[in-house]
Amino acid sequence: MPDFPIWPQCNIGCVFCSNPVEGFRQTTDRYALDELKKKLSDYKAGLRTFVKFDEERDYFNLTGGEPTNHPDFLKILAHIRTEFPANLIRLLSNGRMFYYEDFARRTCGIAQTPFEIAVPMFGPDPKTHEAISRTPGSWAQTTQGLRHLAKHRRPGQLVEIRIIMTKVQVRWLDGLLDYLLAEHPWVDRVVFLFEEIEGFAEQYKDRLKFTQSECAAHLDRNYEKLKRFKDARLYHFSLCTVPERLWPFVWNTLAGFKVEYQEGCRTKCAHREQCVGVHRSYARHMGAPDIAPIAVARAAVPTGDRFHPFR
Ligand code: SF4
C-alpha cells in the first residue's frame, strides 16, 4: 500500500497534525484530478513510487490534508476503484463531510469493496473533541457522519476509529471510550496510535509529549474496555514500553525509514524480531527514556505475523 495524499488542505486544525508546515497546504495545483490520474497510471505501469509503504502493492491509504475536501473526490475514488478493482482502499478522513448524508451514501456506493474508512475521535463531547480539532462544530459533524456511515456502508466495508495518543488526549481517554462503547458499538476497529511529533505538531510538542510507558499505563487502566471493542489495536508502540497483557493488541505498522533500533535492541532484546522498534521522532523529541531490552522472552504466544506478532 502506498500512502497516497490526494488533497493538502484540511477543514480541522488538530494540534498533533504531522503534515509538513512549509507550503504544503498551498500546493493544491499539484492535486488536480488529471495530476492524480497520471500518478496512478504511472504507478500501475511501474514508472513511479510513493514515499511511504511503496513495497505494499495491494492497498492504498488515501490521505491529505483531508481527502474528502478534494473538489473531485468522488471521481478520484471511482477512478481508483476502476483501475484497481481488487485493492483495499482505506480512506483516512476526519469524517466531517459524511455529515452530508448523500455524500456518505455516494462514497460507500462508489468505493465498493474492499474499503475502509478511518476516522479520528478526540473526546466524548464538543468541548473536549474541539479542544484538539480546534474547529467549532466538528464534533457534531463527525459524530453525525459516523451515523451516516453506519447506515450506508455496504457489507464488507469497515469503519475504524483512530485515537491519537498524546498527553492532551489522555485527559479524555476514559470518557471517550465510554462514549464509543455506548454510542458507536458497531464500529469494526478502534486504533490507538502513539503520537508522531512531526510537522505542525512540533510547535506544540511541549504540550503533547509524554513517554510511551505513561501512555501504555493509561491504556492498561482501560484494559477491560479495550476487550469490549470488536477489534482494538495499538500502533507505533515499542514492546518494552507496553504491559504484557496488552501485547495481543500491538500491531506493527511503521514504515522502515521512520524507525531505528538502539544498541540494546540489537544485542540484548529477546523480542527484537517481533518489535516495531523505536520511532525516530520518539527518540528525537522525547529521548526514548523507557526503551529497555527485554532480557528474557515473555510468555506471550507469537503468531509468526510480523504485523500482528502476538495472539
Ligand atoms: S529494546 Fe528495542 S527491540 Fe526490544 S522491545 Fe524495546 S524497542 Fe523493541
Commentary on this structure:
The protein has 2 domains: 156 residues, Aldolase class I (TIM Barrel), CATH 3.20.20; 125 residues, no CATH class. The protein has 11 helices and 10 strands. Helix 2 packs parallel to helix 3 and helix 3 packs across helix 5. The mean pLDDT is 93. The structure holds iron/sulfur cluster. The site of iron/sulfur cluster has 16 residues, from helix 10.
The DSSP helix count reads 11
| Low-pLDDT regions | none
What overall geometry do the principal axes of the alpha carbons give? Answer: globular
What is the number of beta strands? Answer: 10
CATH class annotation of the largest domain = Alpha Beta
Beta-strand percentage range? 5-15%
Percent range of helical residues? 25-40%
Please name the fourth-level CATH homologous superfamily of the largest domain: Aldolase class I
Q: How big is the Rg?
A: 19 Å
- SSE sequence, one letter per element: EHEHEHEHHEHEHHHEEEHEH
If you consult CATH, what is the topology of the largest domain?
TIM Barrel
Distance between the termini: 24 Å
Summarize the structure.
The protein is of the alpha/beta class and about 300 residues long.
How is the secondary structure organized here?
Elements (H helix, E strand, L loop, with lengths): L2 E5 L25 H12 L14 E6 L8 H11 L4 E5 L8 H11 L3 E6 L5 H8 L4 H15 L5 E8 L7 H11 L5 E6 L10 H4 L3 H10 L1 H6 L3 E4 L14 E2 L7 E2 L2 H6 L9 E2 H7 L25
Helix pairs in contact: 1-2, 2-3, 3-5
The protein binds iron/sulfur cluster.
What are the defining features of this structure?
311 residues, alpha/beta, TIM Barrel, two-stranded antiparallel ribbon, 10 strands, 32% helix, 15% strand, globular, binds iron/sulfur cluster
